[in-house]
Design brief:
Elements (H helix, E strand, L loop, with lengths): L2 H4 L10 H34 L19 H30 L9 E8 L2 E6 L4 E4 L9 E8 L4 E4 L7 E3 L5 E6 L9 E2 L13
Parallel strand pairs: 1-4
Antiparallel strand pairs: 1-2, 2-3, 4-7, 5-6, 5-8
Helix pairs in contact: 2-3
Length: about 200
């Protein structure tokens, strides 16, 4: 069965532009941090093997000590800045893209999503009707969710379409998504909100 019809939830199976952007950012961060881990671990392992006490040496005597190397220190600073920039550029670009609601899209669907303990209410403001724990959106069109909560903090999450966005009391949040094609896209509350939190799905 195709992934988009199976109901399987995974951030590694993306079905929308926001989810793809966030997955790309994850991979960039993963490869950069993996490189750092291997480099630091390799240098540490080399130092432990290279400079360990040899047979016959007096183990109570410390090895020859060196202090300061401007070239090494400068190189490490430049490398650190470079790695941070590699992560920072797509991060800032992604935040800007995610937070820029396409208001100029006249075909965008407007939906007010309200979290309750322990269910979701969806009001289709353009169409004038309400659903509970089920939301239907047109494939290939932008959908603007106005996020509200009636009680405690909830977190609105559709893993294959976009990242999480909190529903906070007395605060208006919003997010937009777009599904590439028709299918079942399961969502749920990603913030522990009480005893029946696990049942807060849509």
């Amino acid at each position: 069965m195709p992934e988009h019809l199976s109901g399987h939830q995974s951030t590694f199976v993306t079905e929308g532009p926001l989810a793809r952007m966030q997955l790309d950012l994850f991979y960039v961060t993963l490869w950069v941090t993996t490189f750092i881990f291997i480099t630091v671990g390799g240098v540490l392992a080399y130092a432990q093997i290279k400079f360990k006490a040899k047979k016959g040496e007096e183990r109570s005597e410390p090895p020859a000590q060196t202090h300061g190397n401007p070239l090494v220190e400068l190189g490490l600073i430049v490398a650190s800045i470079g790695l941070l920039v590699i992560i920072a550029i797509p991060t800032v670009r992604g935040i800007w893209y995610m937070e820029t609601i396409p208001y100029d899209d006249e075909d965008m669907v407007e939906i007010v999503a309200t979290g309750y303990q322990w269910w979701f209410r969806f009001d289709y403001t353009d169409l004038g009707f309400t659903t509970a724990n089920e939301v239907v959106i047109p494939a290939g069109r932008n959908v603007h969710f106005h996020l509200r909560t009636n009680d405690v903090i909830h977190s609105f999450w559709i893993p294959r379409l976009a990242g999480k966005k909190d529903m906070i009391p007395n605060r208006a949040n919003s997010m937009w998504i777009r599904a590439d094609g028709p299918g079942y896209y399961w969502g749920h509350c990603a913030e522990f909100c009480g005893e029946s939190h696990a049942n807060m799905r849509f």
